[in-house]
Design the sequence.
DNA sequence: GGATGTGAATGTCTTCACAGCT
DNA sequence: AGCTGTGAAGACATTCACATCC
């Protein structure tokens, strides 16, 4: 079954809200409360959830703990992920220092760069290695997810190295599309682009 | 005229590619080349551009320098923006250290936090001030854009302070929807969510 | 000949509205 | 009575395909 990107993103938002509700001791929750909490409509919430089954009880709502479990399962968050970062420039080092990912089960295992001035540095407990070692390291210790934070020119080549080494998921901060095999998932993040979208919005009001 | 979010995002991608082509001395470019460069179709490129006028010449393509100018104008990038960051935790400090925004005309003018241990620190030339001073500072020196990187609980209150102080654009890194007046534009970024979308993708292949 | 600009067709996502459980 | 689950309708975005112009 094909599930849209936007539905997946909302599931992730529902989950975070549900975990909060759970900590506060809520036993059940309605689609309407979930909707308000993440900024959508109750119909949308029900559609999203019904893609994966009937988790609610009519007249009652959804069991908070049950839904938390179900969503963690659907999203694949019951496990931990090994993440490698390639490119330790401005964005890469910011991401490594950020470390907020660890709380959600995404552990940055190692980092790579080409620049000899950066290789060998330690950030947030992660030692930066030479990108030449990337393929060899991955052969020994596979990674689940790679974050590409190189300049635009280098991104495609890095992506190919990663794909050959068996990495199946890439989060790309470089502002270029990546050509990768069908079975590799790629998501793009481009913070400058978000600011430019705000710039556009400012012009038009 | 109503232009979709995704069109705007693509315009931003076209622009970056065009700037690169421009540096390489390209005089004209076809919708097909633009499409390949950003990972879409030529029909999509033409639709996006035609929303704002007829910039191309049939049989020839688009003038690179002219289109750069047009897009910078459409996106509102001919000017510089004063940006304030509220919340200097993991994400906030990463963003301030990142400094890649400056290259695109977005200058981080100041930063704010509640934590006395953080207030007074200097990151990347930006001194962190007490969030109590936020409203007063904005009254003296207005900001165009605010980045909220506080914990989820604090985000809404900060957004209200910002809106009252006349800020019309917010980039929100907190994983909660923000209720703001109609005339304030809000964009959300949630990096954990991107990783969770990859986690989902990994499960389903 | 070659590439744009754009109606029409198609595809996708969201909202409506209500039957059906609890 | 209350709230879910879901077909149907509607809104929105993308793709097609071709007339149009350089």
Sequence:
């Amino acid at each position: 079954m094909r599930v849209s990107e936007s539905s997946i993103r909302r599931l992730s938002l529902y989950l975070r809200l549900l975990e909060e509700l759970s900590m506060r001791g809520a036993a059940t929750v309605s689609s309407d409360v979930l909707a308000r909490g993440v900024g959508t409509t109750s119909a949308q919430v029900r559609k999203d959830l019904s893609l994966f089954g009937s988790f609610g009880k009519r007249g009652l709502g959804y069991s908070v703990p049950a839904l938390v479990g179900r969503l963690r399962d659907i999203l694949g968050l019951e496990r931990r992920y090994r993440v490698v970062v390639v490119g330790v420039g401005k964005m890469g080092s910011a991401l490594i220092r950020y470390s907020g990912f660890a709380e959600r089960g995404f552990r940055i295992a190692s980092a790579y760069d080409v620049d000899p001035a950066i290789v060998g540095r330690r950030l947030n407990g992660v030692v930066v290695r030479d990108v030449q070692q990337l393929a060899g390291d991955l052969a020994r210790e596979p990674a689940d997810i790679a974050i590409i934070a190189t300049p635009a020119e280098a991104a495609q080549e890095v992506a190919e190295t990663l794909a050959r080494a068996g990495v199946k998921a890439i989060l790309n901060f470089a502002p270029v599309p990546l050509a990768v095999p069908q079975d590799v998932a790629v998501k793009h993040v481009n913070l400058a682009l978000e600011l430019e979208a705000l710039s556009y919005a400012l012009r038009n009001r």
Chain A has a mean pLDDT of 96. The helical segments of chain A are 5-23, 31-38, 42-50, 64-75, 90-98, 134-140, 152-164, 191-203. Residues 4, 6-7, 40-41, 43-44, 47, 57-60 of chain A lie near DNA strand C (CB under 10 Å from a C1'). Chain A touches chain B through 59 residues (CB under 8 Å).
